[in-house]
Structure formats: C-alpha cells, structure tokens
C-alpha cells in the first residue's frame, strides 16, 4: 500500500518516550488485513526514480493481482516484516496500539465531510520503531 498520512515521533515510555510511527489505513485496503494479522509492519521510503512504480502500487489492489511483479521493486523480508529492497529507508515497527477513527470524536466536523464523504474511517496504528535500515 502507498500512503501519505502518517507521523513519526516520540510517545509513551520514560526518558523521552518511545520512537514511534503512526499510520492510517482505510477499511477497504487489502493491506489492512496484513496489518491486523501481524505483530509488525514496515514503512519504506523511496527515491524519486520509483514514483511511477509507487503510483501503480497505489492504484491497483494486491487482492486482484500480484502488483509488485509489474514494478521494478523486489520484496525482501526479515523475521518480522516484509519490505522493499530498493527503499532508501525502512522502518520496522511493532504494533503498540490501534483504534478505529470515529465520527463522533471529531471536534471539527468539516474534516469528516472533507476527508470521509463515504464515512470509510481509517484505523490508526501506532508502532514502536524497532529496526531502521538505511541504504548505503
């Protein structure tokens, strides 16, 4: 799945908090099944040269085809998560928390109509960043 909504920061824990990544996944995304079923998820960051491949991944569901095989990207995995070999930066995150975003919790109702006209609210996942891979 390609994503543009998320944050990196520090949360919970002592001595400055735990380094975390927060991601948001809509219920109809095939990726949600994998995030829900696994203890870990990965976040991959790429050079501009992979923009076309990422556009394709973002427009086709993995439920319908092996979409990765139609890109220049290759899958790599460790004992925790799957990620892409071509990524410049990979964060391996262990899920700490997840919560479905709820309409009644919005203070500014404009956000609901603007971002959720179909009321397909994201699930928010917060993961502790446990491993970082940086391409040389």
Any overview of this molecule?
- It is a single chain.
- The protein has 136 residues and is α+β, with helices and mostly antiparallel strands.
- The protein has three helices and seven strands, in the order ββαβαβββαβ.
- The chain has helices at 30-37, 51-59, 109-115, and strands at residues 6-11, 18-25, 40-45, 75-77, 82-84, 89-100, 123-134.
- Strands 1-2-7-6-3 form a five-stranded antiparallel β-sheet. A two-stranded antiparallel ribbon has the order 4-5.
- Strand 1 (6-11) and strand 2 (18-25) form a beta hairpin.
- The longest helix is centred in the middle third of the chain and has 9 residues, at 51-59.
- The two termini are 24 Å apart.
List the keywords.
136 residues, alpha+beta, 5-stranded antiparallel β-sheet, two-stranded antiparallel ribbon, 3 helices, 18% helix, 37% strand, globular
């Amino acid at each position: 799945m390609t994503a543009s909504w998320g944050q990196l920061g520090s949360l919970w824990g002592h001595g400055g908090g735990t380094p975390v990544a927060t991601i948001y996944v809509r219920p109809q995304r095939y990726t949600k099944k994998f995030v829900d079923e696994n203890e870990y998820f990965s976040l991959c960051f790429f050079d501009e040269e992979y923009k076309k491949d990422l556009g394709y991944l973002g427009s086709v569901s993995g439920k319908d085809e092996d979409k990765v095989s139609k890109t220049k990207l290759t899958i790599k995995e460790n004992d925790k998560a799957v990620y892409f070999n071509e990524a410049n930066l990979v964060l391996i995150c262990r899920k700490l928390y997840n919560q479905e975003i709820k309409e009644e919790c919005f203070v500014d109702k404009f956000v609901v109509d603007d971002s959720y006209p179909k009321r397909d609210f994201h699930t928010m996942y917060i993961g502790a960043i446990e491993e970082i891979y940086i391409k040389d």
